[in-house]
Automatic annotation (TrEMBL):
InterPro entries: MetI-like, MetI-like_sf. Gene3D superfamilies: MetI-like. The keyword tRNA processing does not apply. This is Putative spermidine/putrescine transport system permease protein. Residues 62-250 form the ABC transmembrane type-1 domain. The chain crosses the membrane at residues 7-31, 66-87, 99-124, 130-153, 174-196, 231-250. Coiled coil: none annotated. One of its GO terms (biological process) is transmembrane transport. CDD domains: TM_PBP2 (cd06261). Belongs to the binding-protein-dependent transport system permease family.
Amino acid sequence: MQKNGPIALIFHGLVVTFVLAPLVVICLVAFTPENTLSIPTTSFSLRWFREIFVHPDFVASFANSLWLATLSATISVALAVPAALAIDRYDFPGRDALNGLFLSPLIIPHLVLGVAFLRLFALIGATGSFGWLVASHVVVITPYVMRLVMAALSGLDRSAEKAAMTLGASHWTVFRRVTAPMILPGITGGWLLAFINSFDELTMSIFVTSPQTVTLPVRMYMYATESIDPMMAAVSALMIALTAAAMLVLDRAFGLDKILVGQK
């Protein structure tokens, strides 16, 4: 195995430092006892974490984001798994077009999608509906599920499926008892990435939320336009912790290398 030289190691270290430094600073500022954005030098305080729960708007927005991300990710999996199976295993007219349709949100700016959804919802009278907010998030996050499920299917050994069908199992039984467990890491990883992207979505959500369906990132943006204090750092630290915990659980359960890179 070829090892990285000192220059490559230094470069990688600088990249990692550049990526992690802002996150570390935000987490440190979240524990400041002061009223301004400053790194604590004398003592650490949970003051600004307590402030989050004093504001009912933030608690309600967190609940909205959690419910929205859970629904959106689940619906995305329900759409992406059969679509990935069809695209991976069958040759039919429009196959490439269907694949491009599912993956197209990856190349469309979320600002453009937000304006488009805003106009569409205004035309059909669905402005402010939580259901249509879920639908817009499903469009944005489904490509993440598609990519991971298709990656899992591409490396799947179908001999077990053929053996099950030879023994008389139906297509549904084969999928439920053989295929689904074998691609479960891709499905789980896709759901989790979809959940994280939906939970963190801001640019598009600004255009399609209503006062009753404001998500946590939108609430943070609205609060930041009025005042900047360490409570924003505390909310950000909680979101970082939530994302890190989700990735840790995924790594312990399946292994991130297996899900994201495709290593056996």
